[in-house]
From TrEMBL, chain A:
One of its GO terms (biological process) is ubiquinone biosynthetic process. It comes from Lactuca sativa (Garden lettuce). Keywords: Lipid-binding, Mitochondrion, Transit peptide, Ubiquinone biosynthesis. It comes from the Eukaryota. This is Ubiquinone biosynthesis protein.
From TrEMBL, chain B:
It is a peripheral membrane protein. It catalyses: a 2-methoxy-6-(all-trans-polyprenyl)benzene-1,4-diol + S-adenosyl-L-methionine = a 5-methoxy-2-methyl-3-(all-trans-polyprenyl)benzene-1,4-diol + S-adenosyl-L-homocysteine + H(+). This is 2-methoxy-6-polyprenyl-1,4-benzoquinol methylase, mitochondrial. Belongs to the class I-like SAM-binding methyltransferase superfamily. MenG/UbiE family. InterPro entries: SAM-dependent_MTases_sf, UbiE/COQ5_MeTrFase, UbiE/COQ5_MeTrFase_CS. It comes from the Eukaryota.
Length: 299, 290
């Protein structure tokens, strides 16, 4: 985890942040850079116990890099900077512990209170989280994205042997499997994400997720095509996510069948579009030809 | 109004030490409303004020704020998000307004919905300490607790004590609230340091206090209301003009939102935030200890 975050951060830490600030509202023709911004911002926060690292050197170098970047702007406030990081750290620790209680208590304050007790922090801290339950769901989404990126980077998914449609199906499946343990409480998480106060964050997180899917398929489209592809994939991901909620088949087999069909549909649709385009060109040429012929006759 | 404050500030910072060198050797001058008094005197004067107003405290709060103080306190408690098993200290909360709200939130159906036997045990561990320097205010609170049927639950503990020297152990509380109280203390820094000391890691500090209004027209209206209406109402209803004159003056002497926020941060708290209510008539400051 640290490895990938640091790798992404090191060569681009300055450029990517600057770039993102400037172009966040423009059509993103260089989505890779935008994504690097995400990893550089989240790389400071700690990870749940599952993520042990043995490459501490890269981590420290990445953090010094960030410090260098920040120093000129807030050297005056440097006295207050370390505590703030500390708070973020504690919040992440509490949220990581809270996830263990979600299956029983749901995405609730009660789960976060239990989580805080587990890590020896006063449950009072839950009141300081800006979005309450929203913070927990947001944290979970971020963690899942990190796991997905790690899986892609480590080659664990063996994507290189697959054709694009299979790659997408595999990636979406891997991501959805990460939330399988929470499936009974996932409708609640969806409703939390849909609340107006959380919606911007959750929408952004989903957009990043879809971005990451397409990167892994090595798709570097641009313009309208870029948006279209992401919208379609976003649709596939969301419908499959909903389908999964009511799927009682062992290991969610029905869900994966459903997913494969939707991906196939999408790729068929792409073909259909091309066919329509060719057909339209042919018709255009035909009509144009006969029109020209008509005009000639008229003369 | 602004000139008066500036004038007073100059007086305090420059002139006063020249005229009264002897007194500054032993104690520092502090403010009691717009008056300059010795530190020892201030606590006594504040004590007198609250002894006088204790009996009419609630009715005056309702009259002066138009009932809004109830909503402000509700907001404070909702920001605190109390939980079963909480150990909480409410300072300067003699009449129990904030403490009752916290207890009721914890007891509410909302929490009960979670069918968990553990919760019930925790419920019994809930302890809310109400600390006030003034025994008269505490008596009002105790009486109201009896009326509300909260008196014999054992969750409310009434303590007479000084916010600058709390009688609690380090790292013993989950939450600390002070509503309309910190303005009356002699050393705000000491109170903040004490709050920091007694809170557990992750514990939260919340302060509800009358603060400064900046919006142009509203500010003039508010000043007129404060200086012309409140003392008169105080005289008519409570028969005590001076105490309410002190009240509005002390609000003007209290540090503005940003300054107070930085004082909280200096005491060691993190994630220091504040929220203005009614355009800054009151502000809720909060911080987390780590």
């Amino acid at each position: 985890m640290y490895r990938s975050a640091a790798k992404r951060l090191l060569p681009y830490s300055y450029f990517s942040v600057k770039h993102c600030l400037q172009t966040s509202r423009l059509p993103i023709t260089t989505p890779r850079l935008r994504f690097r911004f995400l990893s550089s911002t989240t790389s400071d926060s700690p990870f749940p116990n599952g993520f042990n690292t043995n490459t501490n050197t890269t981590t420290s170098s990445s953090s010094t890099q960030t410090d260098e970047f920040h120093n000129p702007s807030d050297s005056g406030a440097s006295r207050r900077t370390p505590p703030r990081a500390n708070y973020e750290e504690e919040q992440a620790r509490v949220l990581a512990a809270s996830l263990l209680h979600v299956a029983r208590l749901g995405w609730t304050e009660a789960a976060m209170i239990a989580g805080a007790r587990d890590v020896g922090v006063s449950p009072s801290i839950v009141g300081a989280f800006s979005q309450k339950e929203g913070a927990l769901v947001e944290y979970f989404m971020d963690e899942c994205l990190k796991k997905l990126i790690d899986a892609i980077d480590s080659g664990e998914l063996q994507l290189q042997d697959l054709v694009p449609s299979e790659r997408i199906a595999k990636l979406v499946r891997y991501r959805l499997e990460l939330q399988a343990p929470y499936i009974s409480k996932w409708p609640q998480a969806l409703s939390i994400q849909a609340q107006p106060s959380n919606f911007t964050t959750s929408f952004k997180q989903r957009a990043m997720l879809v971005d990451e899917f397409w990167h892994a398929v090595s798709d570097e489209g641009n313009g309208v095509d870029w948006y279209l592809k992401r919208t379609v994939l976003g649709g596939i991901y969301s419908t499959t996510e909903i389908y999964m909620l009511t799927d009682n088949s062992p290991d969610f087999n029905d869900t994966w069948v459903f997913l494969n069909e939707r991906v196939r549909d999408a790729f068929d649709l792409k073909k259909t579009f091309q066919e329509v385009k060719y057909f339209a060109e042919a018709v255009g040429a035909g009509v144009g030809g006969s029109f020209q012929g008509f005009m000639k006759k008229g003369c | 109004m602004a000139f008066r404050v500036v004038g007073r500030r100059l007086l305090r910072s420059k002139l006063l030490p020249m005229f009264t060198p002897a007194s500054t050797l032993h104690s520092h001058a502090t403010s009691f409303g717009f008056k300059e008094v010795n530190e020892e005197e201030k606590s006594q004067l504040v004590g007198n004020v609250f002894t006088k107003v204790a009996s009419n405290y609630d009715i005056m709060n309702d009259l002066m704020s138009g009932g809004l103080h109830r909503l402000w306190k509700d907001r404070l408690v909702s920001k605190l998000s109390p939980f079963p098993g909480m150990k909480h200290l409410d300072v300067a909360g003699g009449t129990g307004d904030v403490a009752f709200r916290i207890l009721e939130t914890i007891n509410s159906v909302n929490r009960r919905a979670i069918e968990d036997t553990l919760e019930d045990d925790l419920q019994r561990e809930t302890q809310i300490y109400v600390c006030d320097i003034n025994p008269n205010m505490l008596d009002v609170g105790k009486k109201r607790a009896q009326q509300r049927g909260l008196g014999d639950q054992g969750s409310l503990i009434w303590v007479e004590g000084d916010a600058e020297k709390l009688n609690f152990e380090d790292d013993s509380m989950d939450g600390y609230t002070i509503a309309f109280g910190i303005r009356n203390v002699t050393h705000i820094e000491k109170v903040l340091a004490e709050a920091y000391r007694i809170l557990k890691k992750g514990g939260r500090f919340l302060c509800l206090e009358l603060s400064h209004v900046e919006a142009p027209v509203f500010k003039q209206l508010y000043d007129y209301y404060s200086f012309s209406v409140i003392p008169v109402v105080g005289e008519l209803v409570a028969g005590d003009r001076d105490s309410y004159q002190y009240l509005v003056e002390s609000v003007r002497r209290f540090p503005p939102q940003e300054v107070f926020a930085s004082m909280i941060a200096d005491a060691g708290f993190q994630k220091v935030e504040y929220e203005n209510l009614v355009g800054g008539v009151v502000a809720i400051h909060s911080g987390v200890k780590f």
